[in-house]
Design goal:
The protein contains 15 helices and twelve strands. By secondary structure, the chain is of the alpha/beta class. The chain has two domains: 247 residues, Type I PLP-dependent aspartate aminotransferase-like (Major domain) (Aspartate Aminotransferase, domain 2); 136 residues, Aspartate Aminotransferase, domain 1, CATH 3.90.1150.10. The protein has a seven-stranded mixed β-sheet with strand order 1-7-6-5-4-2-3, sandwiched between helices. A five-stranded mixed β-sheet has the order 8-9-12-11-10. Helix 1 packs antiparallel against helix 3, helix 4 crosses helix 9 and helix 13 packs across helix 15. It binds pyridoxal-5'-phosphate.
Length: 397
């Protein structure tokens, strides 16, 4: 919901800078941070009216002008009717599930989703009678076979972490809708700058604002985008009651992050592609996983579904885990951390960090080998990132 009617006419870059801003009587140019927990009313009647409508400024667990500006801007960028911001990406997933599911319902999820998402489904939603079946992301037949009469949600991330597999969003949306199922896409890796899942039939889009929306590794937050009823009314109802709300300060950081999102995603993608191409020529490297490479089995789908290939590159080393750790330990510039989407490049060993809690058999099934390294390519000079990796590759070759 943009504040300016003309916003719908604007291109992506313009929306990223302009959508959602509401100027106060002070005439500020930049969006202000409304650090206030509550709002005052002119009189008792206005307070009563606002409370009974449940809309407008009342209390910052419900709504806050800075949070609203971020929500409206992100909704405009995704092409969704409504957006609700949350205190983290996980809170966005929780709010979605708590609102849309009831005991007895069933989720079909891609097996390669974010680790905490799997824990949320398995450890917590299961306690309330919501079961989850996991299927390979890129196998539509497996999704079809997993559908039960009580299936309510399809849940996926594309590209997946860390093997950069893709889902055909349109194919899964068609399958879901034929069975009255909602398709939820976690769009963290691409962001709307590179992929707009609603164009391919997704019903809800999830974000961890913590990653590329912030883009500089500062704040934790999240959002759900979708239609005005499910998101604007139903999920908003859960949020204002249960309270996993986004702080106005974090909303402001994300709001300003959106202004440079497209520029950053293009730069991340260009650097990642260069790096992936170079890694493919390295003798110590066994395989590179990056959708921008013609060697990627879903390269054509990536070109159709995404307007860029993103900033995450994974690769396997011939020397197994010792080589992977040696490469990681030889870096001086790239940060050893599991976070991603930062201006700073980061490197991690998924098998012993993000996917360390899986059993060896589960890891093997997910294709997360000991030899795998994942890089979130930042905004440093590509030559410097390459040099930082070259040192380690020389040692392991
Ligand atoms: C980080 C991440 C999340 C969770 O977000 P938080 O902000 O850490 O709660 C969800 N999905 C994906 C793909 C992520 O990378």
């Amino acid at each position: 919901m943009n504040t300016h009617e003309d916003d719908v006419e604007l291109g992506f870059a313009s929306l990223a800078v302009r959508a959602g801003q509401v100027r106060t009587h002070e005439g500020e140019h930049a969006e202000p941070i409304f650090l206030t927990s509550s709002f005052v009313f002119a009189n008792a009647a206005e307070a009563a009216a606002r409370f009974s409508a449940g809309e407008g400024n009342i209390y910052s667990r419900f709504t806050n002008p800075t949070v609203r500006m971020f929500q409206d801007r992100l909704a405009a960028l995704e092409g969704g009717e409504s957006c609700i911001a949350t205190g983290s990406g996980m809170a966005a997933i929780l709010a979605t599930c708590m609102t849309l599911l009831k005991s007895g319902d069933h989720i079909v999820s891609a097996s390669g989703v974010f680790g905490s998402t799997i824990s949320l489904f398995n450890l917590y939603l299961s306690k309330f009678g919501v079961a989850t079946t996991y299927v390979p992301l890129a196998d539509p037949a497996a999704w079809a076979a997993a559908i039960r009469p009580e299936t309510r949600l399809f849940y996926l991330e594309t590209p997946s972490n860390p093997l950069m597999e893709l889902a055909d969003i349109q194919a899964l949306a068609d399958l879901a809708h034929a069975h009255d199922i909602l398709l939820v896409v976690d769009n963290c890796f691409c962001t709307p700058a590179l992929q707009q899942p609603f164009k391919f039939g997704a019903d809800l889009v999830i974000h961890s604002g913590t990653k590329y929306l912030d883009g500089q590794g500062r704040c934790v937050g999240g959002a759900v985008v979708g239609d005005a009823q499910r998101v604007g009314k139903d999920i908003f109802g859960f949020l204002r009651t249960a309270g996993p709300s986004l702080s106005p300060f974090n909303a402001w950081v994300f709001l300003k992050g959106l202004e440079t999102l497209q520029l950053r995603m293009r730069a991340h993608s260009a650097a990642a592609l260069q790096l992936a191409q170079w890694l493919e020529t390295q003798p110590a490297v066994k395989q590179v996983y990056y959708p921008g490479l013609p060697s990627h089995p879903q390269h054509e789908l990536a070109k159709r579904q995404q307007s860029g290939f993103g900033g995450i590159v994974s690769f396997e080393l011939r020397g197994g885990q010792p080589a992977a750790w040696q490469l990681i330990d030889a870096t001086r510039l790239i940060s050893i951390t599991a976070n991603l989407g930062d201006a700073k490049s980061t490197i991690t060993h998924p098998a012993t960090t993000t996917h360390g809690r899986l059993t060896p058999a589960e890891r093997e099934r997910a294709g997360i080998r000991e030899s795998l390294v994942r890089i979130s390519v930042g905004l440093e000079d590509v030559a410097d990132i390459r040099q930082d990796l070259e040192r380690g590759l020389r040692q392991t070759a």
